[in-house]
Specification:
Helix content is 44%, strand content 12%. The chain has three domains: 56-254, Rossmann fold; 262-336 and 432-444, no CATH class; 340-425, Arc Repressor Mutant, subunit A. It is α/β, with parallel strands linked by helices. The longest helix is centred in the last third of the chain and has 21 residues, at 340-360.
Protein backbone atom coordinates (compact mmCIF):
# COMPACT_ATOMS: atom_id res chain seq x y z
CA UNK A 1 0.00 0.00 0.00
CA UNK A 2 1.28 3.43 -0.94
CA UNK A 3 0.59 6.30 1.43
CA UNK A 4 0.63 9.74 -0.18
CA UNK A 5 1.95 12.59 1.90
CA UNK A 6 0.97 16.22 1.46
CA UNK A 7 2.86 19.33 2.59
CA UNK A 8 -0.46 21.06 3.19
CA UNK A 9 -1.76 20.18 6.67
CA UNK A 10 -5.11 21.57 7.82
CA UNK A 11 -5.75 21.17 11.56
CA UNK A 12 -8.95 21.74 13.52
CA UNK A 13 -8.84 23.18 17.06
CA UNK A 14 -8.66 19.74 18.72
CA UNK A 15 -5.79 18.64 16.47
CA UNK A 16 -3.95 21.91 17.10
CA UNK A 17 -4.23 21.35 20.86
CA UNK A 18 -2.92 17.80 20.41
CA UNK A 19 0.00 19.12 18.35
CA UNK A 20 0.77 21.67 21.05
CA UNK A 21 0.81 18.99 23.75
CA UNK A 22 3.02 16.87 21.50
CA UNK A 23 5.50 19.74 21.12
CA UNK A 24 5.63 20.35 24.89
CA UNK A 25 6.20 16.65 25.59
CA UNK A 26 8.90 16.26 22.94
CA UNK A 27 10.66 19.46 23.94
CA UNK A 28 11.16 18.05 27.41
CA UNK A 29 12.32 14.67 26.13
CA UNK A 30 14.36 15.30 22.97
CA UNK A 31 14.56 18.92 21.76
CA UNK A 32 16.56 18.03 18.66
CA UNK A 33 14.19 15.20 17.73
CA UNK A 34 11.27 17.57 18.11
CA UNK A 35 12.73 20.05 15.63
CA UNK A 36 13.38 17.35 13.05
CA UNK A 37 9.95 15.70 13.52
CA UNK A 38 7.96 18.93 13.42
CA UNK A 39 9.85 20.20 10.36
CA UNK A 40 8.77 17.10 8.45
CA UNK A 41 5.16 17.08 9.66
CA UNK A 42 4.34 20.78 9.66
CA UNK A 43 6.59 22.58 7.09
CA UNK A 44 3.85 25.14 6.42
CA UNK A 45 3.52 25.95 10.12
CA UNK A 46 7.27 26.46 10.47
CA UNK A 47 7.38 28.66 7.35
CA UNK A 48 4.59 30.89 8.67
CA UNK A 49 6.30 31.04 12.06
CA UNK A 50 9.41 32.37 10.33
CA UNK A 51 7.28 35.03 8.62
CA UNK A 52 5.88 36.18 11.98
CA UNK A 53 9.30 37.02 13.40
CA UNK A 54 9.84 40.67 14.24
CA UNK A 55 13.11 40.79 12.29
CA UNK A 56 11.72 38.90 9.29
CA UNK A 57 12.96 41.46 6.75
CA UNK A 58 16.46 41.53 8.24
CA UNK A 59 16.48 37.73 8.33
CA UNK A 60 15.71 37.69 4.60
CA UNK A 61 18.65 40.03 4.03
CA UNK A 62 20.90 37.69 6.04
CA UNK A 63 19.76 34.85 3.78
CA UNK A 64 20.72 36.81 0.65
CA UNK A 65 24.13 37.44 2.22
CA UNK A 66 24.84 33.74 1.75
CA UNK A 67 25.30 34.50 -1.93
CA UNK A 68 25.98 38.23 -2.07
CA UNK A 69 28.64 39.81 0.11
CA UNK A 70 28.43 43.46 1.14
CA UNK A 71 26.17 45.86 -0.80
CA UNK A 72 23.76 45.95 2.15
CA UNK A 73 22.09 49.14 0.87
CA UNK A 74 21.43 47.66 -2.56
CA UNK A 75 20.26 44.29 -1.21
CA UNK A 76 17.78 45.78 1.27
CA UNK A 77 16.33 48.21 -1.29
CA UNK A 78 16.01 45.64 -4.09
CA UNK A 79 14.37 43.21 -1.66
CA UNK A 80 11.96 45.80 -0.24
CA UNK A 81 10.84 47.07 -3.66
CA UNK A 82 10.62 43.70 -5.44
CA UNK A 83 8.93 41.79 -2.61
CA UNK A 84 6.96 44.54 -0.89
CA UNK A 85 6.09 46.29 -4.13
CA UNK A 86 4.64 43.14 -5.67
CA UNK A 87 2.46 42.56 -2.59
CA UNK A 88 1.10 46.08 -1.95
CA UNK A 89 -2.25 46.74 -3.63
CA UNK A 90 -2.52 50.48 -2.96
CA UNK A 91 0.91 51.78 -4.00
CA UNK A 92 1.58 54.17 -6.86
CA UNK A 93 2.62 52.24 -10.01
CA UNK A 94 6.02 53.98 -10.25
CA UNK A 95 6.84 53.29 -6.60
CA UNK A 96 7.60 49.66 -7.35
CA UNK A 97 10.09 50.41 -10.12
CA UNK A 98 13.83 50.36 -9.45
CA UNK A 99 16.97 50.93 -11.53
CA UNK A 100 20.36 49.51 -10.54
CA UNK A 101 22.92 51.75 -12.22
CA UNK A 102 26.64 50.98 -12.29
CA UNK A 103 29.47 50.62 -14.77
CA UNK A 104 29.96 47.30 -16.54
CA UNK A 105 31.72 44.60 -14.55
CA UNK A 106 30.57 45.76 -11.09
CA UNK A 107 28.27 42.76 -10.59
CA UNK A 108 24.95 44.60 -10.62
CA UNK A 109 23.10 41.72 -12.29
CA UNK A 110 24.69 39.20 -9.93
CA UNK A 111 23.33 41.19 -6.98
CA UNK A 112 19.83 41.53 -8.43
CA UNK A 113 19.67 37.84 -9.31
CA UNK A 114 20.94 36.96 -5.84
CA UNK A 115 17.99 38.82 -4.29
CA UNK A 116 15.34 37.63 -6.75
CA UNK A 117 16.50 34.01 -6.45
CA UNK A 118 15.15 34.04 -2.89
CA UNK A 119 11.64 35.02 -4.04
CA UNK A 120 9.04 32.55 -5.40
CA UNK A 121 10.32 31.66 -8.86
CA UNK A 122 6.87 31.52 -10.45
CA UNK A 123 6.48 35.24 -9.72
CA UNK A 124 9.78 36.31 -11.33
CA UNK A 125 10.02 37.02 -15.07
CA UNK A 126 13.61 37.61 -16.23
CA UNK A 127 14.74 38.72 -19.67
CA UNK A 128 18.19 39.61 -20.99
CA UNK A 129 18.63 42.23 -23.69
CA UNK A 130 14.98 42.15 -24.74
CA UNK A 131 14.19 44.03 -27.95
CA UNK A 132 11.47 46.69 -28.26
CA UNK A 133 9.55 44.45 -30.70
CA UNK A 134 9.53 41.46 -28.35
CA UNK A 135 8.53 43.66 -25.41
CA UNK A 136 5.65 45.12 -27.42
CA UNK A 137 3.95 41.72 -27.69
CA UNK A 138 5.28 40.11 -24.51
CA UNK A 139 2.50 38.78 -22.26
CA UNK A 140 -0.08 41.31 -23.42
CA UNK A 141 -3.83 40.83 -23.24
CA UNK A 142 -3.79 40.08 -26.97
CA UNK A 143 -1.08 37.37 -26.84
CA UNK A 144 -1.89 35.84 -23.42
CA UNK A 145 -5.45 36.79 -22.35
CA UNK A 146 -5.20 34.95 -19.00
CA UNK A 147 -1.95 36.62 -17.93
CA UNK A 148 -1.97 39.28 -15.21
CA UNK A 149 1.17 41.21 -14.21
CA UNK A 150 -0.09 42.07 -10.69
CA UNK A 151 2.08 40.45 -8.04
CA UNK A 152 4.87 39.65 -10.52
CA UNK A 153 8.44 40.95 -10.72
CA UNK A 154 9.71 41.81 -14.21
CA UNK A 155 13.50 41.91 -14.25
CA UNK A 156 15.16 43.34 -17.37
CA UNK A 157 18.91 42.85 -17.42
CA UNK A 158 21.22 45.34 -19.11
CA UNK A 159 18.32 47.12 -20.76
CA UNK A 160 19.05 49.10 -23.93
CA UNK A 161 18.10 52.75 -24.47
CA UNK A 162 15.85 51.84 -27.39
CA UNK A 163 13.76 49.69 -25.03
CA UNK A 164 13.64 52.44 -22.40
CA UNK A 165 12.27 54.77 -25.08
CA UNK A 166 9.69 52.32 -26.47
CA UNK A 167 5.98 53.25 -26.00
CA UNK A 168 5.08 49.93 -24.38
CA UNK A 169 7.88 50.16 -21.80
CA UNK A 170 6.90 53.73 -20.90
CA UNK A 171 3.22 52.94 -20.30
CA UNK A 172 3.99 49.59 -18.67
CA UNK A 173 6.26 51.21 -16.09
CA UNK A 174 3.85 54.06 -15.40
CA UNK A 175 0.33 52.66 -15.15
CA UNK A 176 -1.85 49.75 -14.06
CA UNK A 177 -3.76 48.10 -16.92
CA UNK A 178 -2.21 50.43 -19.52
CA UNK A 179 -2.90 50.61 -23.24
CA UNK A 180 -0.25 51.60 -25.78
CA UNK A 181 -0.90 52.60 -29.37
CA UNK A 182 1.67 51.42 -31.89
CA UNK A 183 1.90 51.56 -35.69
CA UNK A 184 1.83 48.31 -37.66
CA UNK A 185 1.92 48.54 -41.47
CA UNK A 186 0.84 52.18 -41.29
CA UNK A 187 -2.18 51.32 -39.14
CA UNK A 188 -2.68 52.17 -35.46
CA UNK A 189 -2.92 49.16 -33.19
CA UNK A 190 -3.70 49.08 -29.48
CA UNK A 191 -1.70 46.88 -27.11
CA UNK A 192 -3.35 46.22 -23.74
CA UNK A 193 -1.46 45.07 -20.64
CA UNK A 194 -3.30 43.57 -17.69
CA UNK A 195 -1.98 44.63 -14.30
CA UNK A 196 1.37 46.20 -13.43
CA UNK A 197 4.52 44.29 -12.40
CA UNK A 198 7.25 45.41 -10.08
CA UNK A 199 9.96 46.40 -12.56
CA UNK A 200 13.65 46.06 -11.75
CA UNK A 201 16.12 47.05 -14.46
CA UNK A 202 19.91 47.24 -14.67
CA UNK A 203 21.87 49.56 -16.91
CA UNK A 204 25.40 50.84 -17.25
CA UNK A 205 24.25 53.82 -19.31
CA UNK A 206 25.34 57.15 -17.80
CA UNK A 207 22.88 59.09 -19.96
CA UNK A 208 19.55 58.63 -18.19
CA UNK A 209 16.68 60.88 -19.21
CA UNK A 210 15.00 63.01 -16.50
CA UNK A 211 11.56 61.53 -17.21
CA UNK A 212 12.98 58.04 -16.66
CA UNK A 213 14.49 59.14 -13.35
CA UNK A 214 11.02 60.19 -12.22
CA UNK A 215 9.72 56.69 -12.91
CA UNK A 216 12.78 54.70 -11.86
CA UNK A 217 14.68 55.70 -8.72
CA UNK A 218 18.33 54.69 -8.81
CA UNK A 219 20.24 52.50 -6.42
CA UNK A 220 23.96 52.89 -7.04
CA UNK A 221 26.48 50.21 -6.14
CA UNK A 222 29.67 50.43 -4.14
CA UNK A 223 32.39 50.48 -6.81
CA UNK A 224 35.20 50.96 -4.31
CA UNK A 225 38.29 48.80 -3.96
CA UNK A 226 37.31 47.48 -0.51
CA UNK A 227 34.05 46.07 -1.87
CA UNK A 228 35.94 44.36 -4.70
CA UNK A 229 38.30 42.76 -2.18
CA UNK A 230 35.37 41.47 -0.09
CA UNK A 231 33.79 39.90 -3.19
CA UNK A 232 37.04 38.16 -4.10
CA UNK A 233 37.44 36.90 -0.52
CA UNK A 234 33.99 35.32 -0.61
CA UNK A 235 34.57 33.77 -4.02
CA UNK A 236 37.92 32.34 -2.88
CA UNK A 237 36.44 30.91 0.32
CA UNK A 238 33.60 29.21 -1.54
CA UNK A 239 35.98 27.76 -4.12
CA UNK A 240 38.38 26.60 -1.41
CA UNK A 241 35.65 24.71 0.47
CA UNK A 242 33.71 23.62 -2.62
CA UNK A 243 30.61 25.39 -1.35
CA UNK A 244 27.55 25.77 -3.56
CA UNK A 245 25.36 27.97 -1.38
CA UNK A 246 21.62 27.43 -1.61
CA UNK A 247 18.91 29.31 0.22
CA UNK A 248 16.99 27.74 3.09
CA UNK A 249 13.90 26.07 1.62
CA UNK A 250 11.75 26.85 4.66
CA UNK A 251 12.57 30.55 4.40
CA UNK A 252 11.71 30.42 0.70
CA UNK A 253 8.47 28.64 1.59
CA UNK A 254 7.61 31.43 4.05
CA UNK A 255 7.50 33.86 1.12
CA UNK A 256 4.88 31.68 -0.59
CA UNK A 257 2.53 32.42 2.30
CA UNK A 258 2.57 36.19 1.84
CA UNK A 259 -0.60 37.67 0.33
CA UNK A 260 -1.35 40.95 -1.40
CA UNK A 261 -2.86 43.61 0.87
CA UNK A 262 -3.75 47.25 1.06
CA UNK A 263 -1.83 49.14 3.75
CA UNK A 264 -2.50 52.33 5.67
CA UNK A 265 -0.05 54.47 7.67
CA UNK A 266 -1.72 55.96 10.78
CA UNK A 267 1.23 58.29 11.45
CA UNK A 268 1.59 59.61 7.88
CA UNK A 269 0.66 63.17 8.98
CA UNK A 270 3.84 63.31 11.07
CA UNK A 271 6.07 62.81 8.02
CA UNK A 272 5.14 65.80 5.85
CA UNK A 273 8.03 68.06 6.87
CA UNK A 274 10.76 65.44 6.41
CA UNK A 275 11.48 66.00 2.71
CA UNK A 276 12.50 69.16 0.87
CA UNK A 277 9.78 70.71 -1.30
CA UNK A 278 12.35 72.75 -3.26
CA UNK A 279 12.09 70.61 -6.42
CA UNK A 280 8.78 69.51 -8.08
CA UNK A 281 9.96 65.88 -8.08
CA UNK A 282 9.03 65.79 -4.39
CA UNK A 283 5.44 65.15 -5.52
CA UNK A 284 6.55 61.79 -6.87
CA UNK A 285 9.17 61.05 -4.24
CA UNK A 286 7.00 61.74 -1.21
CA UNK A 287 4.42 59.21 -2.35
CA UNK A 288 7.20 56.71 -3.02
CA UNK A 289 8.54 57.37 0.48
CA UNK A 290 5.12 56.50 1.92
CA UNK A 291 4.84 53.44 -0.31
CA UNK A 292 8.19 52.10 0.92
CA UNK A 293 6.69 52.13 4.43
CA UNK A 294 3.74 50.15 3.09
CA UNK A 295 6.14 47.67 1.48
CA UNK A 296 7.69 46.91 4.86
CA UNK A 297 4.27 46.46 6.48
CA UNK A 298 3.09 43.98 3.85
CA UNK A 299 6.29 41.94 4.19
CA UNK A 300 5.62 41.74 7.94
CA UNK A 301 1.91 41.00 7.38
CA UNK A 302 1.89 38.00 9.74
CA UNK A 303 3.03 40.37 12.49
CA UNK A 304 0.73 43.32 11.70
CA UNK A 305 -2.81 44.18 12.74
CA UNK A 306 -5.65 44.76 10.26
CA UNK A 307 -8.58 47.13 10.51
CA UNK A 308 -12.24 46.18 10.00
CA UNK A 309 -11.78 46.45 6.21
CA UNK A 310 -8.86 43.97 6.26
CA UNK A 311 -6.32 46.73 5.57
CA UNK A 312 -2.89 46.23 7.14
CA UNK A 313 -1.79 48.88 9.63
CA UNK A 314 1.85 49.99 9.34
CA UNK A 315 3.88 50.19 12.54
CA UNK A 316 6.87 52.41 13.49
CA UNK A 317 9.26 49.62 12.46
CA UNK A 318 7.95 49.95 8.91
CA UNK A 319 8.88 53.63 8.86
CA UNK A 320 12.43 52.81 9.98
CA UNK A 321 12.86 50.13 7.29
CA UNK A 322 11.11 52.08 4.53
CA UNK A 323 12.92 55.35 5.26
CA UNK A 324 16.33 53.66 5.26
CA UNK A 325 15.70 52.06 1.86
CA UNK A 326 14.29 55.31 0.51
CA UNK A 327 17.43 57.11 1.66
CA UNK A 328 19.54 54.57 -0.25
CA UNK A 329 17.96 55.83 -3.48
CA UNK A 330 18.57 59.46 -2.53
CA UNK A 331 22.06 60.94 -2.66
CA UNK A 332 21.05 64.52 -1.82
CA UNK A 333 18.64 66.61 0.24
CA UNK A 334 16.86 67.78 -2.92
CA UNK A 335 15.72 64.15 -3.45
CA UNK A 336 16.73 64.39 -7.12
CA UNK A 337 17.91 61.00 -8.40
CA UNK A 338 21.35 61.04 -10.01
CA UNK A 339 23.17 58.53 -12.18
CA UNK A 340 26.36 56.99 -10.80
CA UNK A 341 28.48 59.17 -13.13
CA UNK A 342 26.65 62.36 -12.17
CA UNK A 343 27.26 61.57 -8.51
CA UNK A 344 30.95 60.95 -9.27
CA UNK A 345 31.25 64.39 -10.86
CA UNK A 346 29.73 66.05 -7.79
CA UNK A 347 31.96 64.06 -5.45
CA UNK A 348 35.10 65.01 -7.40
CA UNK A 349 34.22 68.72 -7.47
CA UNK A 350 33.42 68.68 -3.76
CA UNK A 351 36.72 66.93 -3.04
CA UNK A 352 38.64 69.54 -5.06
CA UNK A 353 36.69 72.29 -3.30
CA UNK A 354 37.52 71.00 0.18
CA UNK A 355 41.17 70.59 -0.80
CA UNK A 356 41.33 74.23 -1.92
CA UNK A 357 39.46 75.40 1.20
CA UNK A 358 42.00 73.65 3.40
CA UNK A 359 44.81 75.31 1.44
CA UNK A 360 43.13 78.72 1.86
CA UNK A 361 42.51 78.16 5.55
CA UNK A 362 38.72 78.36 5.19
CA UNK A 363 36.28 76.20 7.16
CA UNK A 364 33.15 77.09 5.15
CA UNK A 365 32.33 78.55 1.73
CA UNK A 366 30.74 81.61 3.40
CA UNK A 367 34.19 82.69 4.60
CA UNK A 368 35.05 83.63 1.01
CA UNK A 369 33.90 87.27 0.88
CA UNK A 370 36.33 89.45 -1.02
CA UNK A 371 37.47 86.56 -3.21
CA UNK A 372 35.73 83.92 -5.29
CA UNK A 373 35.12 80.53 -3.64
CA UNK A 374 36.93 77.57 -5.24
CA UNK A 375 35.77 77.12 -8.83
CA UNK A 376 37.06 75.07 -11.71
CA UNK A 377 37.13 75.36 -15.48
CA UNK A 378 36.56 72.46 -17.86
CA UNK A 379 40.32 72.26 -18.42
CA UNK A 380 40.95 72.00 -14.68
CA UNK A 381 38.29 69.29 -14.24
CA UNK A 382 39.26 67.08 -17.19
CA UNK A 383 42.30 65.39 -15.54
CA UNK A 384 40.13 64.32 -12.60
CA UNK A 385 37.06 63.25 -14.63
CA UNK A 386 38.58 60.91 -17.18
CA UNK A 387 35.62 58.52 -17.52
CA UNK A 388 33.77 60.59 -20.13
CA UNK A 389 34.51 62.81 -23.13
CA UNK A 390 34.92 66.59 -22.88
CA UNK A 391 31.69 67.14 -24.76
CA UNK A 392 29.73 64.80 -22.51
CA UNK A 393 31.28 66.31 -19.39
CA UNK A 394 30.08 69.75 -20.48
CA UNK A 395 26.54 68.34 -20.92
CA UNK A 396 26.57 66.78 -17.46
CA UNK A 397 27.92 69.96 -15.85
CA UNK A 398 25.03 71.90 -17.37
CA UNK A 399 22.50 69.36 -16.09
CA UNK A 400 23.94 69.43 -12.59
CA UNK A 401 23.87 73.23 -12.66
CA UNK A 402 20.22 73.18 -13.73
CA UNK A 403 19.43 70.73 -10.92
CA UNK A 404 21.04 73.05 -8.37
CA UNK A 405 24.09 70.98 -7.43
CA UNK A 406 26.60 73.34 -9.06
CA UNK A 407 26.91 77.05 -9.80
CA UNK A 408 28.36 78.32 -13.06
CA UNK A 409 30.07 81.66 -13.72
CA UNK A 410 31.36 83.18 -16.95
CA UNK A 411 34.80 84.60 -16.24
CA UNK A 412 35.93 87.40 -18.49
CA UNK A 413 39.45 86.99 -19.86
CA UNK A 414 41.31 90.25 -20.46
CA UNK A 415 42.48 90.48 -24.04
CA UNK A 416 40.20 87.63 -25.17
CA UNK A 417 36.70 87.86 -26.62
CA UNK A 418 35.66 84.42 -25.32
CA UNK A 419 34.82 83.97 -21.64
CA UNK A 420 35.80 80.92 -19.58
CA UNK A 421 33.04 78.97 -17.87
CA UNK A 422 33.83 77.95 -14.30
CA UNK A 423 31.86 75.71 -11.96
CA UNK A 424 31.78 75.65 -8.19
CA UNK A 425 30.29 72.99 -5.96
CA UNK A 426 27.48 73.54 -3.49
CA UNK A 427 28.38 71.30 -0.59
CA UNK A 428 25.08 69.85 0.65
CA UNK A 429 24.27 67.78 3.67
CA UNK A 430 23.99 64.07 3.06
CA UNK A 431 20.38 62.94 2.70
CA UNK A 432 19.25 61.44 5.97
CA UNK A 433 15.99 60.75 7.75
CA UNK A 434 15.49 60.61 11.53
CA UNK A 435 14.30 57.49 13.32
CA UNK A 436 10.64 57.13 14.18
CA UNK A 437 11.35 57.70 17.88
CA UNK A 438 12.80 61.15 17.11
CA UNK A 439 9.78 62.05 14.93
CA UNK A 440 7.32 60.83 17.55
CA UNK A 441 9.04 62.75 20.35
CA UNK A 442 9.12 65.92 18.24
CA UNK A 443 5.41 65.68 17.47
CA UNK A 444 4.59 64.97 21.11
CA UNK A 445 6.44 68.01 22.47
Amino acid sequence: MVIEHSDKVSLNSKEKQQAKEFRIKKRAEQPNALTKTMDNIFPKDKAIKIATEEDYFNNLIDEVNKKVVGESNAISTILLVSLGGSLTENAEPTSYNLMVNATSGTGKDFIVKGVLDLLPHHKIIMRQRISPTVLTYFKTEQTEPEWNWNGKVFYLEDIANEVLNSPVFIVMSSNVNPTATITVNNFAKEISIKGKPCMVITTSSPNIRPDLLRRFPIINLDEGIEQSIEIMKQQSEMSKEGINTEYDETIKLSLEHLKRYKVKIPYAHKLIALLSAQHPIIRTNYQRFLDYIKFSAVIHQHNRQKDKDNILIAEPQDYDIGSQCFAHTMSNVLTIPLSSQQQKIIDIINKLTKKQMKKDGKATLTEYKATQPPEFSLTELEPHINFMSDRYLRIQLKKLTDFGFLEMRNQENEGFTKNTMKWRGIIMEKFNLPSYDIIDNKNSS
